[in-house]
Amino acid sequence: MDLREIAVIIPAYNAEKTIGGVIEKLIQCGFGKKNIIVVNDGSTDSTGDIAGKYGVALVEHEVNRGKGAALKSGIAHAWKENLGKALVVDADGQHNVSEAMGFLKMNGKYDITIGERRDILRRMPLDRRLTNKVVNLVVSLLSGVRTADVQCGFRYIDLRIFERIQLQTNRYETESEMVIKAAQRKYRIGFVPVSTIYDNERSHIDPLVDTMRFINMAVRLLWH
Description:
Elements: E1 7-12, H1 19-29, E2 36-41, H2 47-52, E3 57-61, H3 67-80, E4 85-88, H4 100-104, E5 112-117, H5 120-123, H6 126-143, E6 155-158, H7 174-184, E7 189-194, H8 207-222
Parallel strand pairs: 1-2, 1-4, 2-3, 5-7
Antiparallel strand pairs: 4-6, 5-6
Helix pairs in contact: 6-7, 6-8, 7-8
């Protein structure tokens, strides 16, 4: 598949230190500038200005609406441009974008392919580690798919699944909602091993608040 025919969606919030490097690496890998979609989710720094200098597609949220909302805006833009597949990459530089080919090799085998980060739990703070385990356990039970790292933002998606799936959440729980709803509709979920680059960046995840949002979403799906 021609990389220039694939959308690359980058939800971004206050990522001025890393967004330029992420875009540069994607371009070096062969992805087309016009199909790299940066969703600037109400950043208060220079994230949008830096992304705009690269000539990529830039979607602006006037206020911070959450990673899930940014992801949905990116998907909507990709649909508008008639792009059928999307690689999702976080803006913080933690993903080695050269590993994208590992996802593309699964093209046609899975409808959603998710990166499974090596040694992720060992490197996480205790509160994040517990949250991660709870989320993966609940998603596994609701979806029937063993998920070891469902919160990894590095993923490859066949956008046709959204003909039957409507995402209703707007924060970090959206990534889990996507997997649960896709599995319930018999779409194929797969995982590929990926590395993670750490550079002392601060996570925007609030373990307590975002776990409560996740539980609320899971309960709604359980009783739907």
